[in-house]
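Quick one, T. Sequence first:
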Amino acid sequence: MTPPAVDERQRTVDDFGTSRLLGHVRGSIERTFRELLEATPDAMVIVDQNGEIVLLNAQTERLFGWSREELLGRPVEVLIPARYTAHHRAHRASYFTDPRARPMGVGLELWGRRKDGSEFPVEISLGPLDTERGMLVMSAIRDVSERRRADERAQLLIRERAARSALEEALRARDEFLAVAAHELKTPVTGLAGFIELLLREMERTGAVDPQRLRQALGRIGEQSRKLSTLVTQLLDLSRIQGGQLRLEASPTDLVALARQAIAAAGGGATPRSIELEAPSALTAEVDPQRFGQVLTSLLDNALKYTPPDGHIEVSVASQDMHALVTVTDHGGGIAGGQRDRLFDEFYRVDPRAPVGGTGLALLVSRQIVAQHAGTLVAEVPSEGGMRLVVRVPIARGAPRTEAVTP
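Structure tokens:
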């Protein structure tokens, strides 16, 4: 059956109606899009592949101070500081090769520029628009000046609180320092005054002093004088370390010879406590001999304080992986695991109630001196009890490694 002929006039009318309908639809969508654009609280700027502004909302006019007519058709770089325009053009070109919704300049500080030249921090989000005239890019621009000021105020408050806390801690440390220093200084000074007064009284009473009593008194005076000198040295060293003023004069130094000198100064076999040395005939490291000798003396003094009268102390010097290891081991009461972490704190003592003198500064100062030698000082707790202090410093370049061990 032959289909009825179509009236050409009717076809034209129908096509015209469809076109009008599609036009109304497109117009409605465009109006809705523009209304949404105007209702957005952020500045919205749409640019084409040449970087020219083709559409913007009223918030853009208010934020940047330009009128709509002044911005349409102009490069989008007019809205950013001149120092960023070259980079922006390159980034804009690369965006069109991979258009996707994302924030712009992640991790960077972004700035906008108003018509009057003033600048302000912004956040920018990008999104592609596929249109009849080609790919467009829509930018949502938000002024974050108030947020930046709030962040700065928050950071300032954090810094102020940290500074206040540091000041309070410094005042607490100062008070503790003064209390400990006053107590520890008073002890040897009182001892010195007491022995001198005893000698003077005997001289007044008899006109002379028994030689044995004189030797004993002078020995105690010398002992207390050394304690006083050590304490003053520790306090001065701590002050220099905290002020960054401790200077080293490093030179190739035989650590075995330093260890022997420290043992001899500590009394060695002349004391009830025996000190055993296990070391090669020589081992050289680039250290300040005076300061490193001070460290060894402090470690031995610490071991002597906590070793029973009939106990013994072991000192070893060895090399390992281009480092020198100096170890001082005592067999005293030892320390708990939690105390090991605090052993190098200012004024910390393992047992303040124990009849053992000291400020608790020697190990702190020793660790700082070792650190300035690019080394480490750590405390270990041997399974058999007591405590082991281990110094590790680089060996001097070209130094001998190890030789035959001598007792």
